[in-house]
Amino acid sequence: MSWTNLAMNGRILIVDDAMENIQILHQLLREEHDVLFALSGEKALEIAHNQLPDLILLDAVMPGMDGYAVCNALRESAILSAIPVIFVTALNQPEDETRALEAGAVDFITKPFNAAVVRARVRSQLTIKRQADAMRELSLTDTLTGVANRRSFNDTMDSEWRRCARDGVPMALIMADIDHFKDYNDTYGHQAGDLCLQQVSAALRRCAVRPPDLLARYGGEEFIILLPQETRDGAEVVAQRILDEVRALEIAHARSSAGPHVTVSLGMASVMPTEGMDPSALIRAADALLYRAKQTGRDRYCAWEGE
Fold it and tell me: How far apart are CA 145 and CA 128, in angstroms?
């Protein structure tokens, strides 16, 4: 996909208290983009949370919550802070533009505007955002398996732990290790080993299917599955499904003590997070249970529930 194509078919939120201004911009952009609109700052934030637009065109002067307050609120949100904002306003003084940029806007267009200029600036900002999104995705993805990497897991673990503690809901964690993977590599070669990792990760992905679930490659042949808002019983169902999915692959492994095919060992821990608890304790518990699963025969899971 070319960078030019990245600028097409964006989801754009237009925020203005005057419907006629919204209609003008809608006519200008609707052929290339999906266009949403809001008539107030408060409604704009609601739509942004629900629809996650790629770009926001924002008026500065509105009753109630003005454009500057909207921009500040966007920048303070972990979810919305990466959405670029272009001010489109009748204000035309240098101090107005300075204030907009200091609030976090990426561009400033004055009314009346030139249609070609608006289109060009919208395309430019969409391209920049999608390049940044692509680079961020690469930095958080394991290149071999396509699942999240350890950095992505650490970031998500921290944020989900805080959310579960705030909402008073449980969290579960499963650590998975491919049994005798070094022997598999030594027997079948590293190319076969890479393929095995890809097949196993795909099987794990089929088991972590809820929106908050995260599968990550934790290192080497080790994977970790984060299950926010999941009870011990629910996590045990996931663990058993993982064992079954990997067995069903029937990848031959002549040097495994667990059987003729590739298998995994799992450690599963669950807890009710609180603000004073250390999230790494849950990881250590799952790791210890993974070790126990290996010591007691492999191709199984061991489970624990924290107090």
Answer: 27
Asked: is 3-137 a CATH 3.20.170.30 domain? The reply is: no
- Domain edges within the chain: 3-137, 150-305
Architecture of the 150-305 domain = 2-Layer Sandwich (3.30)
Is the whole-model pTM more than 0.70?
no
Q: Which of 97, 221, 230, 236 is catalytic?
A: 221
For the chain, where are the alpha helices, taking DSSP H only?
A: 3-6, 19-29, 41-51, 67-76, 94-103, 115-139, 150-167, 181-188, 190-205, 232-249, 279-295
Residue 102 appears among annotated catalytic residues: no
Residue 205: CB atoms within 10 A of its CB come to 17
| Matching residue, tokens 């199984």 | 300
Query: Alpha-carbon distance 257 to 239, whole Å?
Result: 21
Q: Select from 196, 117, 284 the least CA-distant residue to 204.
A: 196
The pLDDT tens digits for 282-306 are: 999 999 999 999 999 999 999 975 5
**78: confidence class by pLDDT, cuts 50, 70, 90:** confident
